């Protein structure tokens, strides 16, 4: 059943075999035996992809529910009460580098039998297809098919480099931004482009400025700002070190960008997983600590 679910999620026998660290021939034999045992065809096989039949899709839903319950039951009655196994998580590179990974040794000490596979991406991840157990995401674009656990509201800052401000001047009001330019951030998956936003009363004021450089990664976004290409808005934790070192300067500090929610997301059938549960609970505690850079 585990092999079958991984084939459906990853869309191929070879990918499932690699994910489960099994010989590809063994995966093929197991599925043939499973189909013979059930007396139905579970998978459509072509030279390009593998997909579930109608019976296979129904069987998949039962499998993921049963496997989650099995894992929960084993965790309750096992003589080893500590959760164990591999936990696959994905998060923005900045969150991983500056917030989560530096604190992870404490988690590993508390849960020594959990092995972590960490992806650092700014792109959206298909949790089911890519076999990811949990993702951290900033912003409001959430998937209704996933369980969402709020972690924090992140403060943002508007920044520029000292050399940029020497050229364009220091703005004191939103109106002073006329004649300035931005580093534009764009999503490589959706194509959406982001400029400057400011919280004004209960509403959001958008400011459209010209750009010379556009980037699709958070690290590149900040690097272009340091290079003098324009103004940016970023979570405070991401720019905190540059602000302290003086390579970036906060501007318009009295007119704040809107705060960004930070959320943990995971598939509904994995909410019973002890590994996911203890990791998300640990994240809640981590994000509540003072001085972590999520709030000023």
From TrEMBL:
Gene3D superfamilies named in the record: 3.40.190.290, Winged helix-like DNA-binding domain superfamily/Winged helix DNA-binding domain (1.10.10.10)
Keyword check for Ribonucleoprotein: no
HTH lysR-type domain boundaries: 1-53
Keyword annotations: DNA-binding, Transcription, Transcription regulation
Pfam families, alphabetized: HTH_1 (PF00126), LysR_substrate (PF03466)
SUPFAM superfamilies: Periplasmic binding protein-like II, Winged helix' DNA-binding domain
InterPro entries for this protein: LysR-type_TF_proteobact-type (IPR058163), LysR_HTH_N (IPR000847), LysR_subst-bd (IPR005119), WH-like_DNA-bd_sf (IPR036388), WH_DNA-bd_sf (IPR036390)
Keyword Transcription: yes
Family, per entry: Belongs to the LysR transcriptional regulatory family.
Protein's UniProt name: HTH-type transcriptional regulator DmlR
